[in-house]
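User: Continuing from earlier, I have the next pair ready.

Assistant: Great, send them over.

User: Here they are, in order.

Assistant: Folding the first of the pair now:
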Amino acid sequence: RGLEKIFIVSTIVLSSMAMLGASNEAAVIAMADKFYEEEQLDHSNKLLFELIEKNPDSVDAYWMIARNFYEMGNGVPIEKDKAKKLQMYIQCEKWAKKGYDRNPGLADNSLFIAIGLGMQGQTNGVAKTILTSRTLAKQIETAFLNAIEAKEYHYRTDKINTIASAHLALGIFYRKIPDLALMQILTGTKGDVSKSIHHLTIGREMFPN
């Protein structure tokens, strides 16, 4: 009975430690998100980098870092520093991919892979990108589709969530790229008005306001 008592006490202690760790991580995530909302993106990333050092399997840290880099890129005027703007979007893709490698079933990771890639293409110029990086359009399409088909997503507000964002973005993607057979041959995908309307409609129906 003495050994049984020791086992029970040890189990309770370990469970309490796990709960405390989870609670601390949740607090860090909440604070990083608060910094994001306040546009203190460097502070948000600092917390998230430290969290990953302690727990590389943190579910939300990677896509949240990607989101911060995306916003950082948006904040750099292209006419002032195109290289820096591009680098922010590269980092967005990089950190989202790190998250995807650990948790491919989380839609948020796939969404920011697509966003990071898409913004790199937009920064470099769509025509130039199609000519120099023929796989990029297909990579973007695939990442958006992965996000839509994922079983789990974490970003949600009363106005939008990850899945709706992916549908809306994919709808815009199919509208913007050329609807040409040559585009399909060169890149593996092409514009499609019916697909664009389909995804835009789904996204808007999820959040009609």
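And the other member of the pair:
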Amino acid sequence: VLVFVSLLVFAIWAVPKFGDTTKMILMYAVSIIIAATGLLLLIKDKNNKWFLSLAACGMGALYISFLVTRMHFGVISDLTLYILFFIWGIAVCLLSRLRSVLFLVIGQIGMFVSTVLGVFYALQSSDGEILIGIVIYFVIAEAIFLASHYQKEFSKNAINLVSLLCSIIPLVIGCVIKPEINEMLGVCSAVIMLFVLAVLMILFTVAFK
């Protein structure tokens, strides 16, 4: 179903007879309507898997819309994109607490994708501060994910831990590849803190299993 929604968003983006503004309006309208419909239906029946899938697909489509808006249309800046990612991540994180672990998985996938893209952009730029900004963004966002599921289900702790470790990899690669060593000292320190958080999460996961 998520693939279907993604193709639908892509189809709206690709229709040549629409102007860019119309494409974006339709893209966001479809994403928001799908997400809102799924969430409203979940209020009536929170155990319905179809309603859950519909809401999750809508949130995924919204994430894709953010990416298309920046990467294709170029309407928003990188900073605005990551602010939207951050707000989206918090919303998905809250939904994962209230409804299903599926939203947590989607949120962490979104975090991983945004981290990889951020590192890629940083490596293409001569400004080492971009990578530092990505690390700060990642630390804050992941801290929210970890704190919001502290002492919750074992599965959620495990998902957060695995996702954290996966996202650390591109950050470490970015720190190693980036030539501005002096500017990377703060980044390396932040990455070390992430590893410490990962170790703590391992301890929490074992303790609350």
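Worth noting for the second one:
The radius of gyration is 18 Å. The helical segments are 2-14, 20-44, 49-73, 78-98, 101-124, 129-148, 154-177, 185-207.
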